[in-house]
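Crash report, auto-generated. Payload:
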Amino acid sequence: MIRLKNVSMSYSGDKPALIDVNVEVAKGEFVFLVGPSGSGKSTFIRLLLREYLPTRGTIFVSGQDIVHMRHWKVPYLRRNIGCVFQDFKLLPNKTCFQNVAFALEVIGRPKHIINSTVPEVLRLVGLEDKINRYPGELSGGEQQRVSIARAFANKPPILLADEPTGNLDPATSLGIMTLLSRINRTGTTVIVATHDRETVDSMRQRVIALEDGKVVRDQQKGVYGYED
Amino acid sequence: MKISPLYFTKEALYSFRGNLVQSIAAITTVALCLMVVGLILLVLFVGGALIENIENKVEIQVYLEGADITAAASTVTKTEIENQAHETIRAWPEVSGVEYVSKDEALEEFRETFQDNPDILNQLSDNPLPASFRISLVDPRDVDKVAERIKQLPNITGLVGDPETNIEYGRDTVEKLFALTKWISYAAAGFAGMLIFVSLVLITNTIRLAIFARRKEIAIMRLVGASSWFIRWPFLLEGMFEGLIGSAIAIAALTFIWQTFFGNLASGQVLAFMSFPFDEIPFTELVLLLLASGAVIGSLGSVIALRRFLRV
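Recovered output after restart:
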């Protein structure tokens, strides 16, 4: 499903953000990407979204070489990858429904499909009674649920989450992680970059640890394993 | 939902309203710029037509002041020389016609010109005016060449006496006129180009602000995989609207200026003597040109503004 081969990446001039990373993620896996700040977790996620190109190496997503992918094909790659961020990236002037619908509208989904899909995914994330609320009226955890609903609305085979619980308290965080793992059980490959020691330890999933841009540990049913 | 022109138009109008002050500023600039451009073009058309009028009046006068060599018992008569020169000149491809004006005809014209000044006419005892050739040209720019060639004719002194004084064509006037026409066209084109550049910059700025106001939406659109053109169209249309509205205002203003100013000029005393062909101003083409310029400036400005935002 996802394969990185000898991937190195450095932003202009700086010390490399990723060094010779080799990772393979199979279809339907749930992977935690852990490591201290600046270890390259976000770079990893952004390379998969093709927000950046690696300096060296090849990346395959769903069998496609995304490094040599034509520029105009990138949007179609992204339609297969749902994405969740620490800062939610919701539009404050749109309701929950409209925020989720927006993601489907801009990739040209027909209106009747949008009208049936949006309430369904909002129910999946447990927000069926807040469907017409604005993000400002919701708690952080609820906002993140909306953003997960948006990422999942198109039923992408891959879901990436970059510090999805970075702004949330531990109890809420666990709820978000549980939600992500429920999405994983529908067959979606999920990669979560996180700092959140407790949830990683409690969930016992595959853990890939990055340190200074290198993969230092890749462990099935792993734990966080850092004293930071 | 299919990607529909209606959706893009709605988005463009929405953005236009949300950004009203900036949009009005951009429209005003485009309107002003295109108005000046249009005005320059109008003046160029009018000026060009006037100059063409003058150019068409450029002719070479050859005064046949040669001494009467019949008296000198020459082998050829003066009339023969004149006839021969007439034939020769008329055969040149640059020459469209040679008119022979006899001494009597010249005097008649002189009388008509000065009919309000009987004093001058009364002082004429006999006819001091020479006969002449009036040579009109296919292209007035050839006037120099043709005049020189006349001077090279055999028996030229027999024909005109002194060729330097008796072959006239207002050489300085003609050359200055041509130089001026060229210079004005270049200056006007340069000025128009500068104004178009300024409008382009302002439209770009407006659209950039519109984009900036919606950068979160655009970032999310990129993220969930909206295609570049899907994101581009509303802004492109917005820029195009602004350009078109601007050019429409410019056209309205120009029409007003044309009717009140140039219209009076043409019907009034100022230009009446020029017999100016006002029907020949290609007004439809000018309108289309300005509309097209507005649309192009608007959409080009948007594309430039969008380039940076669409990279990732």
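Post-recovery validation: Chain B is about 70% helix and 5% strand.
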